[in-house]
Amino acid sequence: MRENTVLTSWRKGGQSVGGWLSIGNAYTAETMSNLGFDYLCVDLQHGMLSYDDLKYMLPAISNYDSIPFVRVPWNEPYEIMKALDAGAYGVIVPMVNNREEAALAVDSCRYPPDGHRSFGPIRAAMYGGRGYTHEANDQIACVAMVETADGIENLDEIASTPGLDGIYIGPSDLGYALGLSPTTGSQDQKHIDTVELIRATCEKHGIAAGIHTGSLDATKGYLEQGFNLVTLGTDSAFLAGAASSQLAQAKEVSEANREASGY
């Protein structure tokens, strides 16, 4: 079976830098994959896309070495199983509040006897290759998001859930959970301390610690802090940022020419 290289890296304490896909388009997915991200996560929770888009985006990612993940819309077994059957090599599950919910996510990712994933890897077996049936339980990553007040309170029991491969932080919802702003809460010391608590708890239990970011500086900071999976940014944000910067510079030249000519 094709190796889940980022999962192998996390298990050794290594780090990976990923990208987020919120645009339902195979071309943008393939473009991002071609850039060399360690992993790419297709966002079915908040992204402007659906399962129908996923069927085209996952094959597009497969043309290169990026490992395909999917953030499922909710901790529903059928959502997790369909994403895996389509060829995802891991799922990120939002709003996990306790060990029972974490165990449900893990069980949905594993074939019997380790879990209750139903057999039907329609595309996954083609992408994964020979041995998928027997090796998938060890190669599919199950990552829970801790981003609620209950999740923080039950952090230790979530992180110690057998079979869980990592915890991923959504800084905005974590801000809400701490009574802070979803946009600026990450600058508050309470938020900073909670992020470190989650990272340290993951390290204690031997699982990967991950976090979502929206800037190069934040990504570098979290890598230096010791996070194992850090998302550099989202396709839509990269598009808007590059276009905005170049448009502003073009308009500066246009304005300067207008003033010089008197028109």
Mean pLDDT value: 96
* Rg measurement, Å: 20 Å
**Weakly predicted, low-confidence segments:** none
Strand content: 15-25%
Distance from first to last alpha carbon: 66 Å
Structural shape: globular
Please count the helical segments. 13
Short description, anyone?
The protein is of the alpha/beta class. Helices cover 50% and strands 15% of the residues.
Q: What does this entry look like structurally?
A:
By secondary structure, the protein is α/β, with parallel strands linked by helices. Helix 2 packs parallel to helix 3 and helix 4 (77-85) packs parallel to helix 5 (99-109). Strands 1-2-3-4-5-6-7-8 form an 8-stranded parallel barrel, surrounded by 8 helices. The protein is 50% helix and 15% strand. It is built from 13 helices and 8 strands. It has helices at residues 5-11, 26-34, 51-61, 77-85, 99-109, 124-128, 132-139, 149-153, 155-159, 171-177, 189-205, 216-225, 235-261; strands at residues 16-21, 39-43, 67-71, 90-93, 141-145, 166-169, 208-212, 229-234. Strand 3 (67-71), helix 4 (77-85) and strand 4 (90-93) form a beta-alpha-beta unit.
